[in-house]
Amino acid sequence: MILIKMRLFAGFASGMMFLVSCADIPDSVRTETLPLKPCRVAFVDNEVRCGTLNVVENRSTAQGRTIGLNIVVLPAIARNKESDPIFLFAGGPGQAATDLAREALAILGGLNGKRDLVLIDQRGTGKSNGLYCKFPDDVLNEMADPAKRDALSREAIAACRLKLEAVADLTQYTTTIAMADIEAVRAALGYEHINLWGGSYGTRAAMEYLRRYESRVRSVVLDGVAPPSLALPESFARDAGVALHKMYMSCNKDTQCSGRYKDLKAGVEELLANHAKQSRNVTIIDPATGIKREIHISRDMLLSVIFSSLYVPEMAAMLPAAIARAMLGDYGPMMAMSAMSGESAEEKIAMGMRFSVVCAEDVPRIKRGPAAVLSSLQPEPFGQMFVDLFAKGCENWPKGQMASSFDQPVKSSKPVLIFSGALDPVTPPQYGEEVKKNFSNSLHVIAPNIGHGVSHRGCGPKLLKKFVETASVAGLDAKCLERLPRPTFFEPMREKPQKDRAGKPALIAEGKK
After folding, report:
1. DSSP designation for 355
2. Which H helix or E strand runs over 72?
3. pLDDT in the model for residue 467
């Protein structure tokens, strides 16, 4: 299962081998100015500035291997620029911030006129000693066999660990240690105060930076909050189940969707039940290459496509049609959605860094066992698949050090703007509400019809721009986000009534004859 869908570790301890408290990690920083050179990055028209800051890998000993932190600065356009830049904290965990220059401009471009945008590859990602593993594709069909799955998964992860241990101490890539790196970069670049923007896992990183270096922070934007109290992916089954239920309800209320797809929930359950009894090999046209190839379709694979589609409402709007086609034996649409939502992202996620983070900070805090998962609301149809996947991946991964305060609330009087999407399957609004209680100068904005990631939607960039410029939540009117509609459900061309492989009427309901 790990090889089939590594993205489920996706788009995030009572750990072992703890030697010292993270609070004791030296926070010494360079005082000299870090030289930056002109450079070019993909999808950015203007020349930017690049540099590398070398930091020691093991901050507790301050000896041994060093890591070159990769830094890209998108300079402010104005001559008389503001002195406080915006530091971007990427998601994942495992995403490289410097890969997000285009996205940064889409979200923060309105602020780039007077403020630098600073992208730093967190240690273990991108060019900051990126801990990448390529998991083989040639054993995917074998992975569908439960008797072989666990052995093949452990074999792949063991090979990944062996490869990476030659270039890294895998216990030294946790969030708290990485935030000491970010502080070193801030000092080396000569910024007295900075603004923080974090998305998804990046919200956790930004809050950890705020916890430890609050005096250096001017303002904070959190988009899709992963609070420190949350042991991911303990809540994934519940939150994704709620998001899927909302999609069913929206379809039921939509005349065209409910008319075309009779009892969508029952259709999904039937499709999953059929694949739980027996997985199958099917031939599809590869959406990326246009070439026919055989793939193995299992219940877990279908669930992973459904899960990843829920991140983006536009993708979720295509689910009913894709599920209907799958019930007829045509898995092309679902596989196309899988490619759209995950294939390219998987290649850009540093899986070694992801394991090092979640195996130290999250998995040891997860309550194991069916009762723990099934006691949560709406766990179906995902059940324990997320918890099992992470737990197996972490069994033999080196466990780093988690600070005693890491899972405690971050408290601050700094201005904080929080974005949440009501349809988010992984970081829904209740987590934004949780952290807001400890930020005395904050505003929580909820977009009712948006999924994972709100900053770039509709008037999001304008709200963000006004907030950072004023460093205040006063007067921010977020009703414009409330007016964003849920995308219309995809309506394929009408076809004559068809039957599924069992001879039953298909989920597709013919309209006018």
Report:
1. H
2. strand 63-74
3. 98
The region, left, alpha or beta by phi > 0 then psi within -120 to 50, assigned to residue 94 is left
Cα(272)–Cα(249) distance, integer angstroms: 19
Query: Tokens 């093991």 belong to which residue?
Result: 58
Identify the residue with better confidence: 507 or 476.
476
Half-sphere exposure of 306 (CA within 13 A, CB side): 29
Distance of CA 455 to the CA centre of its chain: 14
* CA of residue 41 relative to chain centroid, distance: 23
Give the pLDDT score at 80.
Answer: 92
137 or 471, which is more confident? 471
For 196-227, write each residue's pLDDT tens digit: 999 999 999 999 999 999 999 999 999 999 99
Residue in 367, 359, 365 with CA at minimum distance from that of residue 400: 359
SS3 60: coil
Question: Considering only CA atoms, which of 55, 61, 53, 65 is closest in space to residue 25?
Answer: 61
DSSP assignment, residue 80?
Answer: S
Which residue, among 360, 322, 324, has the nearest Cα to 339 in the 3D structure?
322
> According to the 3-state scheme, what is the secondary structure of 189-258?
HCCCCEEEEEECHHHHHHHHHHHHCHHHEEEEEEECCCCCCCCCCCCHHHHHHHHHHHHHHHHHHCHHHH
- pTM (2 d.p.): 0.88
Residue 324: C-alpha distances to residues 270, 286, 314, 339, 502 (Å)? 11, 19, 17, 18, 14
| Closest residue by Cα to residue 47 from 71, 86, 73 | 73
Q: Which residues pair with 73 in a beta bridge?
A: 49, 118
- Residue 140: CB atoms within 10 A of its CB come to 17
Residue 48 predicted with pLDDT over 90: yes
Percent of the chain with pLDDT over 70: 83
Beta bridge partners of 163: none
Distance CA 28, CA 379 (A): 45
* The residue to which tokens 């971050």 are assigned: 410
- Print burial letters for 278-310: b (CB count within 10 Å at least 16), e (below 16): ebeeeebeeeeeeeeeebbbbbbbbbbbbbbbb
Model pLDDT for residues 335-361, shown as the tens digit of each residue: 888 777 654 455 789 999 999 999 999
Cα separation, 302 vs 283, in Å, equals 15
Structure tokens that stand for 281 in this block = 């090999």
- pLDDT computed for residue 137 by the predictor: 57
User: What is the per-residue pLDDT for 506?
Assistant: 59
Decide if 80 contacts 115 (C-beta within 8 A).
Answer: no
Structure tokens at 41: 């990055």
Per-residue pLDDT, 147: 56
